[in-house]
Specification:
Strand content: 15-25%
Largest sheet: 6 strands, parallel
Number of strands: 6
Strand order of the largest sheet: 3-2-1-4-5-6
Distance between the termini: 15 Å
Number of helices: 3
Oligomer: single chain
Length: about 120
């Protein structure tokens, strides 16, 4: 089972709180992905969103996990097996320490498609 960790900002961006976002999360859940919200306090999810387990840290197992964030500086912590994805606009409007995420997508729906496509195209074995 592949784990997908979410920064709360990804879920609560104005464009994310939509039926497309809920559908994207449902698609990931229905294809066997474990959805996990990274948070230190309980978070109420919008209506229509599937259940997301909540935790305060990324567990190093399983061997392949995803971390979706809206903050490019969160991509700096590299861990074996953890792929990072910047969801939404990048740091074009401000000067920041550039941390390269593995992938950048425009929204949560595109992020879900990217995860499913990369896993479908992964070599067998």
């Amino acid at each position: 089972m592949t784990r997908v960790y979410f920064d709360p900002a990804v879920l609560f961006a104005s464009a994310a709180v939509s039926s497309d976002a809920a559908d994207a999360l449902d698609n990931l859940a229905e294809t066997g992905h474990e959805l996990i919200l990274l948070t230190t306090a309980p978070v109420a999810l919008p209506d229509g969103f599937p259940h997301l387990r909540q935790t305060s840290r990324i567990d190093p197992a399983p061997a392949t996990s995803w971390y979706l964030t809206a903050n490019p500086e969160s991509c700096g912590e590299r861990r074996p097996g953890l792929r990072t994805m910047l969801v939404g606009p990048g740091p074009a409007t401000r000067r920041a320490t550039i941390q390269r995420c593995d992938i950048q997508t425009r929204d949560l729906h595109a992020a879900a498609i990217e995860i499913l496509a990369r896993e479908a195209m992964a070599p067998v074995g």
